[in-house]
Structures are given as structure tokens and as C-alpha cells.
Specification:
About 30% of the residues lie in helices and about 20% in strands.
């Protein structure tokens, strides 16, 4: 069993379609077992759902209403606490099911390692897959303190799986020297510090291709998103991240799925991080399903 079949808690705003009716399936991946600094992102998905109640159903940016998309919120996966390997296998199995059923997966983390099994499922389904990665951190380590399953490794694993030339990272402002050396020498694309403008220049190159989008909330400056496990000063604004999301939505790429990760509510009593995350997810729900 992947989910609590009796779950009757908060769902993301207007994500009330049944599984069979829905084109998009949202699902929480409440895992934070491998974080290198502050834990707590396993509580992110439900806090984002709670914050979504304050959203308007209408996006003035996209001139679309949530009534125009059919979304099912499956709730949080029942992942075995502390067992990263089994959790990853379960997430990949569920992502495979969504793709087999022609659903658009919309994941909510959880630490960033949860993106890795979904990307594996995407790679098995789509030829010529590309990944757009928006984050403060390079996430290009091969291991962290000897542990190969770490939230600092998913993009390195992705490069090794789909080829570094198919990975496009934006907003990066933190990482080991060796990570940046790997990025330079491997052929992957990395834009440091900024997101929207370099992304707009890359998107025409990805036209027509299947693309998975993964966003780590810590790409935002801590002034805009203090509620994250590894906050990094010098980040972008909420406005710039919205601009990037809308640029992807307006492009000719084929979105195969997306996620937003690393919201850790305990470090933000004001809830501004969860509130921002819920808005980003609304814009992706409305913009990424053509």
C-alpha cells in the first residue's frame, strides 16, 4: 500500500477529482532521512496543502482557473521511515503507475532525493528526456559522508542516467569545487545565481522535447523562503521564480511531470515559505498541462 486509503485530510485547493477523472495527480513524498543539515521537509507536503486554502483559484498571470484542469491529490505516500532505499523504490513504482495511466505526476517533497526515482521512471518512459533543475545547490555530489543516497546527489545521478548534456540547472550558488568542475567538464548546462533570463535562452533549444521540472524551494533567498533545511543566502525572489515557471509554461517543451521539494515548515513560523510554495504549485498545475 502506497497511501492511506482512509485519508480524509486537507487536499490541495480544488484537487478533488477522482484518480480516474484526473489528468494530473499530486502526491506527497514525505521523506527527509538523508538531509545534511536541518530535517523536517517530510512535513512540507501537508503544510503546503494547508496554505493552499488561502489561494485564489484563478491565476491572473495565466488567465486560467483551477476549474480548467482536473487534479487528484492522492495525499502523502506511506514511506518506511528511515529507509531511503525502500522509499525510493516505492516512489519509482508509483511514478511508473502514473505514467502507465497517462497521468501527469506532480510531486511534493520532502527532501530533494525524492526527485531521483521519479526521474528514473521518466527516463524509462520517454526518449530524449531533458531535466530542468532549479535550485540553490548543485546536487552533483557522488556521495555525502560516504552515503550515496543523499539529497546532495540527485542531479549527479540524473546526469549519469540521461547524460549530462540533457540536464539544465539554474540558480545554483552553492556546492563543492569538484561539483562545479564536473559541471564544466561534463557538458551539462549550469547557470549560476540567476534563473529566469538564462532559462528563457535555453528553452527554445528544448522545444518539442519531453522535459521533467524539479524545483528546490531553497533557490529563493531565505528572505522569501526561510522554511527550508539548507537555506542559502543570495537567492532569487519569488517574482523571478514565478517568471521562470511562466516561461516554461509558455514554451514548446513537453512537460512530463514536475515536483517542488525541500519545504521545512518548522523553520518558518510565518508560513511564508509554504504559502509561496502553494502559489508556485498552482501556477505549475495551470501552466504545465497543455
Amino acid at each position: 500500500m502506497f497511501f492511506d486509503e482512509g485519508y480524509s485530510g486537507r487536499k490541495f485547493i480544488m484537487a478533488a477529482k477522482s484518480y480516474d477523472e484526473a489528468d494530473i495527480v499530486m502526491f506527497g513524498m514525505p521523506m527527509d532521512y538523508t538531509v545534511s543539515f536541518r530535517p523536517g521537509s517530510r512535513f512540507g507536503p501537508n503544510r503546503i496543502r494547508e496554505a493552499s486554502i488561502g489561494l485564489e483559484e484563478y491565476s491572473v498571470y495565466l488567465d486560467r482557473h483551477l476549474e480548467e484542469v482536473s487534479v487528484h491529490d492522492a495525499g502523502d505516500m506511506l514511506l518506511p521511515f528511515g529507509n531511503a532505499a525502500k522509499s525510493i523504490d516505492m516512489i519509482e513504482t508509483y511514478a511508473n503507475r502514473l505514467l502507465e495511466d497517462a497521468k501527469l505526476p506532480a510531486g511534493i517533497g520532502g527532501e530533494h532525493l525524492v526527485s531521483w526515482p521519479v526521474i528514473r521512471a521518466m527516463f524509462n518512459k520517454f526518449e530524449d528526456l531533458a531535466v530542468i533543475h532549479i535550485d540553490a545547490h548543485a546536487d552533483l555530489r557522488e556521495e555525502y559522508e560516504g552515503e550515496v543516497l543523499s539529497h546532495s546527489t540527485p542531479i549527479r545521478k540524473t546526469c549519469e542516467l540521461i547524460g549530462p548534456e540533457n540536464v539544465f540547472s539554474f540558480g545554483i550558488r552553492s556546492g563543492m569545487r569538484e561539483e562545479f568542475q564536473y559541471a564544466r567538464e561534463s557538458g551539462m548546462h549550469m547557470s549560476k545565481f540567476e534563473v529566469a533570463e538564462p532559462l528563457k535562452k535555453i528553452l527554445p533549444q528544448l522545444a518539442g522535447r519531453p522535459v521533467y521540472v524539479t524545483i528546490d524551494i531553497d533557490v529563493l533567498d531565505p528572505a522569501y523562503a526561510p522554511g527550508t533545511g539548507t537555506a542559502e543566502a543570495g537567492g532569487i525572489t519569488s517574482k523571478e521564480l514565478l517568471e521562470a515557471i511562466h516561461a516554461i509554461a509558455a514554451s514548446d517543451v513537453q512537460i512530463t511531470g514536475f515536483d517542488l521539494v525541500e519545504v521545512s515548515p518548522a523553520y518558518d513560523n510565518s508560513e511564508q515559505t509554504a504559502i509561496a510554495a502553494s502559489k508556485f504549485l498552482r501556477e505549475m498545475l495551470l501552466g504545465f498541462k497543455k
